[in-house]
Design a protein that fits this description.
- α1 (36-70) runs antiparallel to α2 (182-218).
- It is built from two helices and eleven strands, in the order αβββββββββββα.
- The chain has a domain at 75-186: Jelly Rolls.
- The chain is elongated.
- A hairpin with a 2-residue loop joins β3 (90-102) and β4 (105-107).
- The protein has 220 residues and is of the alpha+beta class.
- Strands 1, 3, 4, 7, 8, 9 and 11 form a seven-stranded antiparallel β-sheet that branches.
């Protein structure tokens, strides 16, 4: 009869546990920020577009204000004929209107200007002739249905009264002429470009809004 081997004293201590079922816990990568590039591009487009729109609004307001100072009976010559204007010293631009709504009447001549029969002159208060030249470049303006061209330029040596005369040795349709200071002419042309920039800015802003909306959809 075999004997059981002697057993030592009982062992005491904290219970021992094996590894949890299924191994150690697994952690996935943090969730990705979806479409963050869309958000950044959308915000940039929205800011740039908004700035251009504000510039366009300011340029349009300035252009309309300048036009209103031009297209009125006090500052416009209806040719053929002559009219005296009080001018400051400096450069001046002569505008001929191919179409102009003024005083409840529309001036839209059908003949050409200038021609070999037409003559444009400027004289001072003493009747002395002022040199009239062609303007630099070929500039035109368009404000609503009103359109005009820069056709002459002259320098006034001092402030005073100057007479603008437009005549023709042949037949000539009635047409309107306005005088514009060179500094105002630059502002007027700049206003046209500002308005165009504002239109482009509106398109850019819309694109920015679309990108932000797409980002909101993608991130869900």
């Amino acid at each position: 009869m075999s004997q059981m081997p002697p057993q030592g004293p009982p062992q005491y201590g904290p219970p021992q546990y094996g590894p949890p079922m299924g191994g150690p816990p697994q952690y996935g990568p943090p969730p990705k920020k979806k479409g963050i590039v869309l958000l950044v591009l959308g915000l940039i487009a929205l800011v740039i577009g908004g700035i251009l729109v504000l510039v366009g609004v300011g340029g349009g307001a300035s252009m309309v204000s300048t036009f209103e100072s031009l297209a009125n009976e006090q500052s416009t010559l209806v040719a053929p004929g002559e009219k005296t204007f009080h001018l400051e010293a400096g450069g001046n631009i002569v505008i001929v209107w191919d179409q102009l709504d003024m005083g409840g009447r529309t001036y839209a001549p059908s003949d050409q200007y200038p021609t070999n029969d037409t003559r444009l002159t400027v004289t001072d208060a003493q009747g002395q002739s002022i040199t009239v030249e062609s303007p630099d470049g070929d500039a035109s303006i368009q404000i609503g249905t009103n359109s005009g061209r820069f056709v002459a330029a002259f320098e006034t040596p001092a402030a005073g009264d100057y007479t603008l005369s437009v005549t023709s040795s042949g037949e000539m349709d009635q047409r309107a002429f306005s005088l514009l200071k060179e500094s105002d002419a630059m502002a007027l042309v700049g206003g046209v470009f500002a308005v165009l920039g504002g239109v482009c800015g509106g398109v850019i802003a819309v694109v920015g809004i679309i990108l932000i909306v797409v980002w909101l959809i993608v991130r869900k």
